[in-house]
């Protein structure tokens, strides 16, 4: 399992052979129950998920709920779309004027998801489909027909941990996004760097354990390809009960975490600002939970650092805020930021979130 191609082929076989259900052999990272947010799911998302065909939901693999707000009219790209559950939910959320593209390397899953495009079009009352599924690799989006600067939001649900070349995935996602666009994704993370001997185990790769990124490495990776500093949205610990897996993992802990990253202008003007949320989003009339550090209350002015100011100015959220730039140095200009607030393990413990015990791990 020494090359990215070998890992990719192993994962493709691993998931292709389990297309009939989401019951993986060990299921350390792929049970949808292992990424529940501490905040209530917005009604619009609950409603959209409830309309997804049962057979699609049955074949779903994922570790979180990567559903950002304000998606109407957006062009969305789902990396590793699998059975299509998230794509069909997004189809409802973006509306008839939006579009969702799902890309997956597994032919069996593309075949499954494509069978239900017409069903969801009719269920949502659309004149034409707004979902497209393509077979391809998320490390090579151009080869799959995904153009640079073409999408508003890139989504991913527990698939980057299945990829050996994470830098290529992140770079391709950044390239595909328009300026101001967002990568909003759930994934499995490790409490420390995964040792090389674990990366030789095909089952651990299939379960996401060998490929889980040490959470701190996400920060440098994001910056290296052109993204803003990751913003932690939610996290919940994963407890491994399967004795064989537990022994192989040793003292490494795992967690499901959702982060959001933005593609800012190449030379953004970073200046602190006072921002005021207008309360204009239907699911968030009184306050907008943006990430673990930022909850914006309606009509309450708050000061943010230069990077957050740039995010709000250039993203799809710009019309939802009054932004007043401040004539003062950026409050986030320290030379050696610690990023402790981005640690999903600390955040999960601090929030007192209940430990998610995936029943399938008991097998």
From TrEMBL:
GO terms for cellular component: cytosol. InterPro entries: Arsenite_MeTrfase-like, Methyltranfer_dom, SAM-dependent_MTases_sf. GO terms for molecular function: arsenite methyltransferase activity. SUPFAM superfamilies: S-adenosyl-L-methionine-dependent methyltransferases. Transmembrane segments: none annotated. It catalyses: arsenic triglutathione + 2 [thioredoxin]-dithiol + 2 S-adenosyl-L-methionine + H2O = dimethylarsinous acid + 2 [thioredoxin]-disulfide + 3 glutathione + 2 S-adenosyl-L-homocysteine + 2 H(+); arsenic triglutathione + 3 [thioredoxin]-dithiol + 3 S-adenosyl-L-methionine = trimethylarsine + 3 [thioredoxin]-disulfide + 3 glutathione + 3 S-adenosyl-L-homocysteine + 3 H(+); arsenic triglutathione + [thioredoxin]-dithiol + S-adenosyl-L-methionine + 2 H2O = methylarsonous acid + [thioredoxin]-disulfide + 3 glutathione + S-adenosyl-L-homocysteine + H(+). One of its GO terms (biological process) is arsonoacetate metabolic process. Its EC number is 2.1.1.137. It is an enzyme of class 2 (transferase). It comes from the Eukaryota. Residues 72-206 form the Methyltransferase domain. PANTHER family: ARSENITE METHYLTRANSFERASE. Belongs to the methyltransferase superfamily. Arsenite methyltransferase family. This is Arsenite methyltransferase. It comes from Amphiprion ocellaris.
